[in-house]
Design goal:
Chain lengths: 364, 220
């Protein structure tokens, strides 16, 4: 676990980047630091691996003050991913990934074998191993950056706006990939972004920081959306909080009815459309096992009759859910009536963090 | 072309203590000695200043001073101070000539490395010296080699001045040729110096191929 205890960073010119920050970063989960420029999110991240040293207060890693650990040794035990990937241009991809294993004195063969494993893990063609960074696309370079950070199997991963320099489509796929990796690896990840949507998508816990380096609220994404601590957080979260919150509710509990006869299906049981006087009309589908309530609602809104089609993994119709069925579930997940409407103390503790998941392997 | 034929066709020019092979060897000796000393001073200094950021003023001063100093004047001055007969009066002006391009390019090369890359190197857990030698130097290598190449070419061309103070080298053909109005020797000597400079240039192109990582060569 990483803890911040009254951490302040003040620069010589008097600028305060981080102001009396105290928080606990849960082990085995993704904690996102989010906020506008100048909120000290990157500074906070960089104080963990001592790229910046705090002016006062302390940061502990598994109980040990990071100031007591030699910086290079500390950093070799913490994965670090930065915005432009920061790959070494003069080294082949495989050797970039093996950077930390080499530093730790692994022999070349073992380090390269490990690097190849990681390339596969992050979804890269092993054929890219012999290339140089300039021969890869931005998205591929960023994957290599993640592989490099994971090479020595560190329990902690620091990611400083790693996906902000790639286009939206690549960014979304990198985000999905990170979530997939995390479900396997259960690392303690601190992720910095200025993009609240990214924060809400990736974070088990989201720490919202305000300009001047103060913690505005720390909570799970669903809680954040329904119960923003104050106007700043509410404004930062932006519009459609109610709808976006539905992404965190599983569609599993939606009450399904048998498919009505006016839903045409093909020979495999997949939906073709709603039969109407003018032919087949559009339909929307969701998979109750894997999709959220937001997807189910979206599917209902896409059908002329307001009925969402539930399908299984093979795309076969399992039933339908009308707006009434969706509404029942919406009512169940209505925000608490007595929730703090305005102001309130800054949140503490992670809402939906998964707590003490063990990270894989020993720290390097 | 006649003069060239006269010069290179004369068998007497190809042997003896004042033949082309001996003069060429002398020329290379001065040049190599001056170049090596200059490189040994300027490369480490450039790396250090580029890496630490301290002493950048020195680089600027050195670069400007070198442009202002007349090589021949310096040569005469050192001869007056040190006396004729040793090789030192030739080496000093050549070293002074060669240091600035190496120093400036090495410094600029190291300083110009992308800040993100430097950040990543430290963030991975490289120590200061490892950052310098495993990241900054390989990435700055094309510029460092450029500095070395410029210096080497300048030294090789300028080493002709050794003949002014009674030393050997290819300059002998030019100086003696002028004195005796044997223009074939002047031109022959000049052609040899030019060819040598081209050979140096070519050698550095080859060196670049061998020591610079393809990943870096493509980026620049």
């Amino acid at each position: 676990m990483i803890t911040f205890e009254d951490v302040t960073k003040r620069y010589r010119d008097g600028t305060v980047a981080v102001d009396d920050l105290s928080m606990e970063v849960p082990t085995g989960a993704i904690t996102v630091f989010v906020g506008p420029s100048g909120c000290g999110k990157t500074t906070s991240l960089r104080m963990i691996n001592r790229m910046i040293d705090a002016t006062s207060g302390r940061i502990t890693l598994d109980g040990q003050d990071v100031r007591e650990i030699d910086p290079a040794t500390l950093r070799r035990g913490i994965g670090y991913v930065i915005q432009q990937a920061g790959l070494f241009p003069h080294r082949k991809i495989v050797d970039n990934v093996a950077t930390v294993p080499y530093l730790l004195g692994w022999n070349k063969k073992k380090a390269r074998a490990r690097a190849m494993e990681l390339l596969e893990l992050v979804g890269l063609d092993p054929g890219l191993a012999r290339r140089y960074p300039f021969q890869l696309s931005g998205g591929q370079q960023q994957r290599v950056g993640v592989a490099r950070a994971l090479a020595a199997d560190p329990p902690v991963l620091l990611m400083d706006e790693p996906f902000s320099a790639v286009d939206p489509i690549v960014r979304a796929s990198l985000q999905d990939e990170l979530l997939r990796l995390q479900s396997e690896l259960r690392k303690t990840i601190v992720f910095v972004t200025h993009d609240i949507d990214e924060a809400v998508k990736l974070g088990d816990t989201v720490a919202v920081l305000r300009v001047g380096g103060r913690l505005a609220q720390m909570a799970g994404p669903a809680t954040l959306l329904t119960e923003p601590a104050d106007d700043f957080v509410r404004e930062f979260l932006g519009r459609d909080r109610g709808i976006r919150r539905l992404s965190f509710i599983s569609a599993k509990e939606v009450r399904l009815s048998p498919a009505p006869s006016d839903l045409e299906t093909d020979e495999n049981g997949g939906p073709l459309g709603w039969r109407t006087a003018d032919g087949l009309a559009a339909y929307g589908t969701f998979n109750p096992e894997t999709d959220s309530l937001r997807v189910a609602l979206d599917a209902a809104l896409l059908s002329p009759n307001g009925t969402a089609v539930a399908v299984d993994e093979e795309g076969r119709v399992r039933g339908v859910a009308g707006r009434d069925a969706i509404d029942e579930l919406l009512a169940e997940y209505a925000p608490p009536a007595a929730g703090p409407a305005r102001g309130g103390a800054s949140g503490s503790g992670g809402g939906s963090s998964s707590g003490a998941g063990d990270s894989e392997g020993a720290p390097a | 072309m006649n003069w060239l034929a006269d010069f290179f066709g004369d068998a007497a020019h190809w042997s003896g203590p004042d033949g082309i092979p001996v003069r060429l060897l002398e020329h290379l000796e001065f040049s190599a000695a001056a170049f090596l000393v200059a490189a040994l001073i300027a490369v480490p200094l450039g790396l250090l200043i580029g890496h630490t950021g301290r002493g950048a003023l020195l680089v600027v001063v050195a670069a400007n001073a070198a442009r202002a100093l007349p090589t021949l004047g310096l040569l005469v001055l050192v001869v007056l101070l040190a006396g004729v007969g040793t090789v030192l009066p030739v080496l000093i002006p050549l070293i002074v000539l060669a240091v600035p391009p190496i120093l400036v390019n090495t410094y600029e090369g190291v300083r110009g490395v992308d800040a993100d890359l430097r950040d990543a190197a430290y963030g991975m857990g490289l120590r200061g010296r490892q950052v310098l030698f495993q990241t900054l130097t390989p990435v700055a290598l094309p510029l460092i080699l450029l500095g070395l190449r410029l210096a080497a070419i300048q030294v090789v061309s300028t080493a002709t001045v050794a003949a002014f103070v009674g030393l050997g080298g290819l300059g002998r053909f030019i100086i003696d040729g002028l004195a005796t109005k044997t223009y074939a020797d002047v031109i022959g000597g000049a052609v040899l110096v030019a060819a040598l400079a081209l050979a140096v240039q070519f050698a550095f192109v080859l060196l670049d191929r061998v020591v610079v990582s393809p990943g870096v060569r493509q980026v620049r």
